[in-house]
Design brief:
Blueprint (H helix, E strand, L loop, with lengths): L6 E6 L2 H12 L2 E6 L2 E5 L5 E6 L18 E5 L3 H10 L4 E7 L4 E7 L5 E7 L4
Parallel strand pairs: 1-4, 5-8
Antiparallel strand pairs: 2-3, 3-4, 6-7, 7-8
Length: about 130
């Protein structure tokens, strides 16, 4: 198998709101869109697709599911700078910067549909 791209697809109520959030604060650009659909890319990260809940193109048992409990995670080079940038842009930090015993440092923000975006960097654990 040769993988040529990677994407995560999330069901949300307001596709344009989540799409704008990634474009405005995380540098994504919209590749394709239609009513109830937006496909976003950055070139250096996975693609993110938003689908409006209830679309008939989704398998019936999942049509009304929401992207709850899903984390969209980006590993970044300077976590402290990214947190300061997002605060300056007025994005509320919904989980403050935390360092785990295994060396993961992260903080989280939440998009307008409740999708959690987590930014991470790694340090050598003590």
């Amino acid at each position: 198998m040769r993988v040529t791209a990677c994407a995560v697809s999330l069901n949300v109520d307001d596709v344009p709101a989540s799409s704008r959030f990634l474009q405005e604060h995380f540098g994504f650009r919209e590749e394709m869109s239609a009513d109830g659909f937006s496909s976003l890319t950055r070139g250096d990260a996975m693609n993110v697709i938003y689908l409006r809940r209830g679309l008939a193109t989704l398998p019936a048992p999942f049509r009304d599911a929401h992207a709850g409990g899903v984390l969209v995670v980006f590993v970044v080079e300077d976590l402290d700078d990214e947190q300061a940038r997002l605060r300056a842009e007025g994005v509320p930090i919904t989980h403050e910067l935390t360092e785990e015993p295994w060396g993961e440092r992260f903080f989280q923000v939440t998009d307008p549909n409740g999708v959690i975006v987590q930014l991470v960097d790694w340090v050598t654990p003590n």
